[in-house]
Amino acid sequence: MSNSKTFLSLTFFTTFLFFSFVNATYYQDISPSFLGFKQEKLTHIHFFLHDIVTGPKPTMIIASESPLNGKSESPLPFGSIVVLEDPLTVGPELNSELIGKAQGFYVTVSQAAVLELELVMGMTFVFTGGKYNGSTLSVLGRNEIISPIREMPIIGGTGEFRFARGFLQAKSHAVDYHKGDAHVEYNVYVFHYPSTSSSSEDFAEGSRFMKEPMFGQI
Ligand SMILES: *[C@@H]1O[C@H](CO)[C@@H](O)[C@H](O)[C@H]1NC(C)=O
Fold first, then answer.
1. How far apart are the C-alpha atoms of 47 and 91, rounded to whole Å?
2. Closest residue (by CA) to atom 2 of ligand 1?
3. For the segment 73-125, what is each residue's pLDDT rounded down to a tens digit?
4. Ligand 1 centre and the CA of 50: distance in Å?
């Protein structure tokens, strides 16, 4: 009788201890400086994106055709999905200095059968040279291509762009309506914490996290 009581209270105690460890260790408040982030900074980045439809190496493909294909006036009817990998350059010419690429997709989201497309775009700018080599910025938003200036949110980033938030403005620089090729000017405005360490370095604080709060409880 007394043994089973001891057993029960021991079970209860270990369970309680286990849950208090779990509660104590799976999250904690930290300050940005704990991860080496000092001051949030606003950066403006300017480049040109090239969406090449024709030629030997198109930078985009229609990954999924709409069921409305052939039944709609729209060149990309409601539901079409396009996947892109577009080069990003410093100047407006395709052969100007390459700084990265945009990898992503766009979906036609308007049911109106018109030439003026309304898209939702999701893409990541991957920088491959210079100060931001290896860092990325993620974009998700609505792109109404008839507007002279299209604005989309920057929803995050990696490397130099950790904690990124901001917006971009896209403006057609040159469009070949016959071929479909488009050269688009991008102005990106982003708040971020530039890292004080190498952008690919792992954070060592994870291991500290496992030990300190737990021992603190005992
Ligand atoms: C960018 O970083 C990669 C990986 O660290 C490196 O191999 C490459 O040479 C860098 N490119 C430029 C243009 O600095």
1. 7
2. 133
3. 888 999 999 999 999 999 999 999 999 999 999 999 999 877 778 999 999 99
4. 22
Burial (CB count <10 Å: 0-12, 13-18, 19+), residue 164: buried
**Residue 85: partners with Cβ closer than 8 Å, 6 or more residues away:** 59, 60, 101, 102, 103
Whether 134 is in the pocket of ligand 1, judged by its Cβ within 6 Å, is: yes
Ligand 1 atom nearest to CA at 133:
1
Binding site membership of 129 for ligand 1 (Cβ less than 6 Å): yes
- What would the pLDDT profile of 150-159 be if each residue is shown by its tens digit? 999 999 999 9
Report d(CA 204, CA 207) in Å as an integer. 6
State whether the beta carbon of 98 lies less than 6 angstroms from ligand 1. Answer: no
Q: How far apart are the first and last CA of the chain?
A: 30
How far apart CA 154 and CA 176 sit, in angstroms, is 27
Mean pLDDT computed over every residue of the chain: 85
Which residue's alpha carbon is at the smallest distance from atom 10 of ligand 1?
129
Distance separating alpha carbons of residues 115 and 53, to the nearest angstrom: 17
Of residues 25, 74, 84, the one with CA closest to residue 53? 84
